[in-house]
Design goal:
Blueprint lengths: L10 E3 L2 H6 L4 H5 L8 E3 H5 L21 H17 L8
Parallel strand pairs: 1-2
Length: 92
């Protein structure tokens, strides 16, 4: 990933530890352009403990480098919450 931080906030990630050391944001963290303070973990958003997307133009950065079963559980939960909140979803 380009070390320049994306032009959106917050950065929604699966796990800030993973994203900042071996994931898509590692280069930006190493260049001191992205901090963990800018990252919001998806689990906190799904649990209602942190704000996620505020509009359909907001972007979620998802770096799925965990077990496939965790990816599936996260995707199912995110799809369910998107439906509850009437957010746009991609038809696959």
């Amino acid at each position: 990933m380009d070390p320049q931080p994306p032009a959106f906030d917050p950065l929604s990630v699966h796990a800030s530890e993973q994203a900042s050391h071996g994931g898509e944001l590692a280069t930006g963290v190493e260049a001191l352009l992205v901090t963990r303070k800018r990252m919001t973990e998806l689990g906190r958003i799904l649990a209602g403990k942190a704000e996620g997307r505020r509009s359909t133009s907001d972007i979620t950065l998802f770096d799925p480098t965990v077990l496939a079963i965790e990816d599936l559980a996260i995707a199912k939960a995110a799809a369910a919450r998107a439906g509850e909140r009437d957010l746009a979803r991609l038809a696959l």
